[in-house]
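Obj.: predict assembly geometry.
Materials: sequence records (below).
Method: joint structure prediction, all chains together.
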Amino acid sequence: MSSGALASLDRRLLSGLCWLLAAIWVFGLVLLPQLFMIETSLWWLERDPQATALSQRIDRLYQEVMLRELDLQAAPVERRPLLEDEIARLREEIALLEAREQQPVKVYGFANYARMSGLHLQVFLRTLAYSVLVTLLSLAVCYPVAWTAARARSRRGRALLLLALVIPYAINELLRVYAWLMIFDYEGLLNALLVRLGLVDRQSGGIPFLTYPFTTFVAMVYAYILFMVFPLYNAFESLDEHQVEAARDLGASTWLLHRRVVVPHARPGIAVGCVMTFMLSAGSYSVPQIMSRGLGGDWFSQLVYRQFFEANNWNIGAAYAFSLLLACLVFVGLVMRLFRVGIREIAR
Amino acid sequence: MNGGGSRAARFLLDLYVALFLAYMFAPLLVMSLAAFNDYPYPSVTQWGGFTLRWFPALLQDERLLRGLAHSLVIAAGVVAISLPLGLAGALVLQQLRGRAAGFLYAVMVSPILTPGIILGISTLIFWRELGVPAGKFTATLAQSSFIASYAMLMFLARLQRFDPTLEEAAYDLGASAFLFFRRILLPFLAPTAATAAVIAFLQSFENYNTTVFSIGGDWTLVTEIGSRFRFGLSPVINVVGVLFVLATVVFASLWVWLSERRRAVR
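Observations (raw structure tokens):
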């Protein structure tokens, strides 16, 4: 039937359009950029290794040119065009070789990764360690909050509590971190308080909190802690009230209830919260940029930024960025294995 | 018993949540307060008296206003790009089964699990290789790469509730695929599309980490705020903060109110 054939034709057209758009997204916006970044991390520019041999050859050619020029002066008129041609040819060859001598060559290898100095490696590891700490602390702090919100008795109470959590969550990250800058600054709230209490001498200019990595850590916990609350809340909320009651009726203590009923049920939510919090912390550029003033407080993202926009060494920058991505992938893999959840449960 | 245990335990839990909320809101209060302080540097400790003069000062700030305009342009671009891509991705995933579906799904959600700075960097490098310098265009694409993932997840969740017999019925009645798409699928997806558009817009507008790496010499409102922390910090930034807080309170209240009402209706 012709109408059937036509229908299947435009069904295929529509489906083809979907595939095309999906391919543009997956390849054009996700995979190819990542591949280009990895490729960039695998090469660097180097002086041509044959440069010394080249420069010797160039010197020899210059000598020949000089000899020909001497010949030219002594030569009879009819031989001159020949000599001039030859000189021109030699000069051309010299120009070519000189261009090659100065042109750095692309060398492929893993050296960009190995080039991470001791200090940078230390910052890398510290960033990961701090991010794990941010994640664990967020989990511990948020667990009771999310539990209370999910188990709130009245719907109104729950809606209000959710609202109170959504508001700070939705306020721009920079501004929330800025609030902590105002607390930790030299003239900030904390120093003013310490002066008032007589613990710090006003003349000393206050305690330079911003030079300690600790302040970056505090602001980071504040910035990303709510990314833990909502996945936990969603997981707790879907837990059947009867299961909780049954456990209670059977005499389970609060500890046992959570260990045997709530946590096993909330595994995917816990995993999502941990992955998001860790990833945001490890890759955060905003928080350290605002909070750290010292040499000691550097976050790895700042080193990446400097490689790109200050040292202008994109190859090393790409290697650093990919190292960070690998660390995050390893963390996601570990969390998925620890909580025995699949990718479909992680990203929902 | 409502899962809460004894009365004392419940009281402690409530107290704990109250403390947590204080921890969430106190810094914002400090930041907002400084917007009304008549003192040239953002501060709450050096109180120079109450003033509103930083609000009109914001309107004199050319770079912030232009940043706002750039933010709106980029956010509109992100909505226009990430919604179709996310929808196409969800429809493709629905046609697949088994291993291929799992793999494609992982690729499509991977941008959400990738640190934002890396999305910015990879986009920057890719487009430079193609000869396109960093700017609003690359920032739009870098943001779209992960915002499309959010759109895809939302469309996918909605599509799972789609009744497949509707599709069969439409084709049996002789509808073309495009007619089916336009008259049945799109209306079904419209509420999700509206939510996805709002979320995509806000995600783009608020984004910093991805944008700062991919926007080159251009700037958005948020990257401009970011650059002020090192140079030229003034209470004008606190005014921006107050406005953000106000807008967020209004938006979030509306959002929670709407979703509660929807739940009550259901």
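Conclusions so far: Chain B touches chain A through 96 residues (CB under 8 Å).
To do: check interface contacts against the pulldown list.
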